[in-house]
């Protein structure tokens, strides 16, 4: 591995060529009519160079823009065949190559890595039955539980349409009018909202998925990737100071750790719920704003992910990497979690927009196994089927789908009217129970002090008085009366639960 920023020296560089491979005479001087004359249109190399330059960007991801990543492997450490027939998980010791992209959510490409934010945790497993993408976050829950609210949520975290400025007022307006966000905002406002490095945080599927074994038995599952480096966070003050010192602190840290062979690793632990439990579990298990308490569903260690290879080309391997929630492999599928179902549309759509309909042919996105289907042509396609049939059914040996072996993962729903409505509430479904437990039973006194300080600072940055009051009375006091009182006190207000 070369040291960062160092390049190999060479006294025999090749001659520059055009993109067509034709040697060119100069990378310094445009073709002109004499030293003072006009630049000539016939300078095809200059025109190619400028025209290519202005097309260097592809559209950003709509959010999760600033990130970094690395390649590595996943190794199975426990027999999970009783729960899933996924081929890449079918043997203890089996290794699958993978890619991880870790990102922050709201900021653009130049944004400081240590801003208070959720971190994305997107994984691509290059399995023998196609690419499996697990696109999670470093938090076990999320801000909203219905995809209909997702664009509004993201808009509230971005920039104001008139000024182009970030706005805490907009963020708290949305959050306090969306009580289901209270659990995630409690995590975000804790020191877990400012992880020390990407290596020092966990990754969670957050969403609930389905596993299915070879006998067709189904289970509901949540993924927990537990950092083997240990959880470490920055205080708000440390994170703010780092924003001034190094914008790329997290991206740099991951790259440098791998370059010095200090390969970060995560233990995969699963929560596994029998299919039948979902109906009357005390929390709706498909509501992404809730966790499954460990005492009900303890985590089961099943594997280990190690990142051991840095990208050689950041644009080709990290910017153009496309993770798609709809990329399940046999043995893994979606669940009635509405966010999963909404997400299954959005990611492929984004990649078709960002890199085009043939994005899956880019080396970073293509599976290691062979692709056989009837898609053809389109921009930048270079896999061609020759004289093989381009339609199904056909008589000429084109690929055939096997409905018996590869049935869609499924579940049963009761006959019901088609409607727009909330999830059916389970016994303990309340937006404030779990964040309250986190505050009272999980956080240490220091964690609680930091939480209060972080909330107060965040609420003091341009948030209107009536929204501050709503944050205290309709939000934090409902998470915990003591928390509401402390936030109110430090803001110079008085709490009263409404
Ligand atoms: P447990 O006491 O069994 O689990 C609490 C978990 O919280 C820990 O295992 C740890 O999970 C995580 N944690 C520890 N310290 C902090 C912190 N300062 N900030 C945020 N998370 C922390 O209780 P329950 O399973 O009953 O959960 C209680 C609450 O803990 C939940 O309401 C939720 O807010 C939070 N939590 C629960 C998780 C779950 O899947 N059950 C996962 C993470 C948080 P980890 O090892 O994943 O870091
Ligand atoms: C990226 C949509 C919810 C985690 C993206 C992208 C889209 C999107 C369009 C860009 C994809 C690309 O161009 O490659 C949505 C929608 C959601 C949703 C519509 C809700 C319905 C979530 C949730 C999580 C999540 C709940 C975490 C559990 C991520 C991550 C990325 C991402 C980590 C970055 C992936 C990468 O590194 O390339 N999302 N998202 N999203 N999303 Fe979501």
Automatic annotation (TrEMBL):
Biased composition (Basic and acidic residues): 1-10
Transmembrane segments: none
GO CC list: cytoplasm
GO MF, one annotated term: heme binding
Domain Catalase core intervals: 17-400
Annotated SMART domains: Catalase
Names of required cofactors: heme
Pfam families given in the database record: Catalase (PF00199), Catalase-rel (PF06628)
Top-rank lineage group of the source organism: Bacteria
Protein residues bound to heme: 347
Keywords for this protein: Heme, Hydrogen peroxide, Iron, Metal-binding, Oxidoreductase, Peroxidase
Region annotation (Disordered) ranges: 1-35
InterPro entries in UniProt: Catalase, Catalase_clade1/3, Catalase_core, Catalase_haem_BS, Catalase_immune_responsive, Catalase_sf
Active-site positions on this chain: 64, 137
GO terms, biological process: hydrogen peroxide catabolic process; response to hydrogen peroxide
Family the entry assigns: Belongs to the catalase family.
PANTHER family reported in the protein's UniProt record: CATALASE
UniProt-recorded name of the protein: Catalase
